[in-house]
Protein: VWA domain-containing protein
Organism: Silvibacterium dinghuense
Amino acid sequence: MKNAGGIRKPGPPRLDSETWEGDAVSAQDSCLPHLFKTRRVRILILVLLACALRGTAQQDASSPYTLHVQANEIGVTFHAVDENRRPLTHLTQKDIELREDGKVQKHITMLKSFEDLPIRGGFLFDASPSMEGSLDENRAIMQMYASRLLRPGVDQAFVAQFDQDVLPLADWTDSGAALTAGADKIGWRANRIADTAIYDTVYRECRDRWSQFRGEATGNFLVLFSDGEDNASRVYLSEAVDMCQRSRTAIYAISNSRHSAFIAAGQHMLETLAAQTGGKVFYRLDADAAWKVMQEIEAEQRNQYRLTYLPPNFKADGKFHEIRLRCRTCEAKFVVRSGYYAMAR
């Protein structure tokens, strides 16, 4: 897909020739006006530079979660727990062994622990006919998160339904009531044989929804209520996964449809999408199991590590590279994506 993942960032304000014409000095001007105007330009430049530096310093001081990476650095977000499933939050580079395609990586450029992160979560409801019978269960799971785990003033979430296209039902909000009201609007398409585009939906949502949070460290997830049947996407799995990884968004698929267990292709797709983004797949959840799952998702996104490294001889050839983490100093279990596609950065 051409221009995959691109959101063009607005450039800095232009200072073209017209902007400066009023300050230009011709050879016919007297010496004093020339000095005055030249000095005025210099003072203006110094003032603008000072303001820019001050703004940058204030942003850095007030944004403890801001992240910056180099072009060919690979970013890996992961969650670590001990043998009792308690979060491990004080691991260092000496504790971590990172392997890519079986080879130990020696050029780790950053390892940073984030505790009690703000969360940005999305709930996507597949509107295909095969999912209609599980709507009430899926809506109850979303409402469980909205009423019991979402932190007003800290976290934000959205709700949407999709088939070939996405229908927003509740935009980013910290209100559990607004999310519940959005889920109550879910409706089934009039055309019962319309197609479903899961990859396209995941790609667009990760590209567009999280663009306003770019550079911030937040725990990001999409809960995908679907049976995994995709017959209309124009982007490939690799492109959808790459966009999830760029936005540091894990996919958690919940498949409560009665048909899910009989759709091998759908299961494989959901499990691949979840594994390669650092998420998981859950089938046929009752209320108690669903509550434990939502707590698990919240814990994994609330406490995370951000690791970056420079793989030797990086080539943007689209190939998949497997990632494995191991703790050298303790018994730790990592929740981490299975690898990355080497796309152009």
